[in-house]
Inverse folding.
């Protein structure tokens, strides 16, 4: 390399030393936290997953027995099934609602901000225990939902929470209800689509369905990909709502025992910490597979505008 | 005039739909608030939003909770945890973000990549070893495991503030340097004041997440006198014991007040935060 160019590209040695010191001083807190609260726990978790560990006595190395036990654990498979079912319905429902409402909101009106606030509000309060507790009351046999259905002449006396067939749907509904933040992300994406695309489509006589399929969806596809990824990952780790609505144990008959809830039970109710760690790594594996699949499929449906115009 | 009227007629179904569906969306919350003013007998099997007779009794009963503890304790605990955790997160994340955004040092890209990868590891992986660590430190049944890690930066907010700092012209730093400002003064007197919007966004989201946090307190706080509002509500509404739904809804409503205020006063920051960075609420 030309020594002249080098002198310009790199700061003087003394300056470089000062920069290095300053840099590490500023990121120091993160570096410490990274080792103490992420890296070391990650490696410990990998190790514990090959041990039997009840917290009080020291861990005993048992090889891959935790993973082998998982294969035979019917509750594990049940919780996996419940989680897949939850993700398969909650994520698409949430995204469809989010996209449809975002499209309705993508116009100029003085009322828009008020409407947005109303639709977004459930997402703001939805993560709270208050709402989870409320949900359990609403969907009981003598809850408000059955009273409303009765007004429309549908007489149901079932407890939506207590019935093994419907319990998971109350969780899915709770997730779908909180489409607000995805909606805002879609709305920001919709505002980026140039108006001229729709104008030329109008000139060509395209109908609204055609415009939706040929302009909106391709232009929005990278935002859809982002939302799909985030919501899928969140869906697989759902915990709090299931914990509160099921009364902490996945009732009725483990039909709301989502994966993270079973992991919590195993680790902190039965103190099978090794088994819990093994379950956590299977969760990482599942999430990685889904992320990879979504990314791989995205090359066929995500539309990237070519940079050279 | 005629045109305006036609436009109104054309838009009527649109607004009608949005208002009707919007009502369905907020109905559960409205029902909860109204039930907190109803007598217990009126809550069951009643979908009405108007209490037959408005009673404030639920709030008094709920506040006293059980035994010697009142919700004053739980609100104090929640506030202590939320405020300290938010403060720690914002201050440390801003310092770290400045380091990554403005200083050239060996290994910067490597550590930045590490930080972004750590963002993608589910909490379930680190949860158990962290618990074991804090258990051995005898930190269980204190707020330390919940608050201390927040003082070492949260990758998500570090990233958010880095993005913001990159938008600030580098010439400002250069000028300050020529005037003899050191690194820390540049950070404190020049970058920080310009970062206020990003700081506010981070603070709002972290406050909101910590106020709602359930899993952390559930793991570490096992004594009722340490309970946060979330834990107390969950205890209160235990299916095996609870029947006093009026009192439960009164306290649930109160627990949403801080979030509601945040929503009303900082809606602009919330909406911008989500639209531009994909922050999940």
């Amino acid at each position: 390399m030309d020594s002249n160019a080098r002198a310009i590209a790199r700061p003087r040695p003394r300056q470089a030393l000062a920069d290095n010191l300053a840099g590490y001083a500023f990121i120091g807190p993160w570096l410490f936290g990274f080792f103490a609260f992420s890296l070391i726990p990650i490696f410990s978790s990998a190790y514990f997953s090959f041990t039997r560990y009840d917290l009080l006595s020291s861990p005993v190395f048992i090889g891959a027995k935790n993973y082998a036990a998982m294969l035979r654990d019917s509750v594990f498979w049940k919780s996996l099934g419940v989680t897949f079912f939850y993700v398969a319905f909650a994520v698409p429902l949430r995204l469809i609602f989010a996209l449809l409402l975002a499209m309705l909101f993508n116009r100029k009106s003085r009322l828009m901000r008020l409407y947005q606030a109303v639709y977004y509000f459930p997402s703001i309060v939805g993560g709270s225990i208050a709402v989870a507790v409320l949900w359990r009351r609403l969907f009981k046999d003598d809850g408000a939902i059955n009273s409303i259905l009765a007004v429309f002449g549908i007489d149901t006396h079932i407890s939506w929470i207590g019935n093994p067939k419907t319990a998971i749907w109350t969780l899915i509904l709770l997730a779908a209800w909180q489409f607000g933040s995805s909606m805002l992300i879609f709305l920001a994406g919709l505002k980026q689509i140039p108006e001229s695309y729709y104008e030329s489509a109008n000139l060509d006589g395209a109908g609204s369905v055609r415009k939706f399929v040929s302009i909106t969806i391709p232009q929005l596809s990278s935002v859809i990909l982002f939302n799909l990824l985030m919501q899928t990952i969140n869906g697989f780790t759902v915990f709090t709502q299931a914990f509160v609505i099921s009364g902490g144990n996945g009732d009725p008959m483990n039909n709301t025992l989502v994966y993270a809830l079973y992991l919590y039970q195993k680790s902190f109710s039965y103190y099978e910490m090794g088994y819990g760690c093994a379950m956590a790594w299977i969760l990482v594996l599942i999430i990685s597979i889904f992320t990879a699949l979504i990314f791989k499929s995205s090359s066929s449906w995500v539309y990237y505008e070519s940079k050279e115009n | 005039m005629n045109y305006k009227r036609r436009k109104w007629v054309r838009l009527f179904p649109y607004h009608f739909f949005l208002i009707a569906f919007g009502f369905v969306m907020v109905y559960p919350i409205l029902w909860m608030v109204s039930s907190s003013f109803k007598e217990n007998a009126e809550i069951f099997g009643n979908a009405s939003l108007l209490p037959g007779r408005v009673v404030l009794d639920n709030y008094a009963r709920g506040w006293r909770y059980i035994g010697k503890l009142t919700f004053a304790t739980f609100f104090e605990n929640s506030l202590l945890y939320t405020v300290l955790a938010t403060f720690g997160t914002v201050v440390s994340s801003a310092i770290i973000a400045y380091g990554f955004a403005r200083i050239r040092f060996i290994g910067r890209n490597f550590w930045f990549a590490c930080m972004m990868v750590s963002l993608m590891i589910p909490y379930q992986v680190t949860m158990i070893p962290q618990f074991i660590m804090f258990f051995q430190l005898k930190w269980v049944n204190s707020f330390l495991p919940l608050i201390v890690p927040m003082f070492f930066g949260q990758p998500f907010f570090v990233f958010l503030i880095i993005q913001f700092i990159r938008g600030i012209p580098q010439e400002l730093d250069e000028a300050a340097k020529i005037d003899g400002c050191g690194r820390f003064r540049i950070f404190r007197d020049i970058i920080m004041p310009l970062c206020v919007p990003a700081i506010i966004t981070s603070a709002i989201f972290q406050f909101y997440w910590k106020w709602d946090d359930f899993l952390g307190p559930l793991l570490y706080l096992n004594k009722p006198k340490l309970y946060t509002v979330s834990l107390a509500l969950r205890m209160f509404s235990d299916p095996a014991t609870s029947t006093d739904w009026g009192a439960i809804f009164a306290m649930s409503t109160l627990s949403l007040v801080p979030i509601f205020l945040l929503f009303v006063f900082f809606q602009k920051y919330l909406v911008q935060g989500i639209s531009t960075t994909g922050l999940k609420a």
Q: What stands out?
A: The mean pLDDT of chain B is 90. Chain B touches chain A through 90 residues (CB under 8 Å).
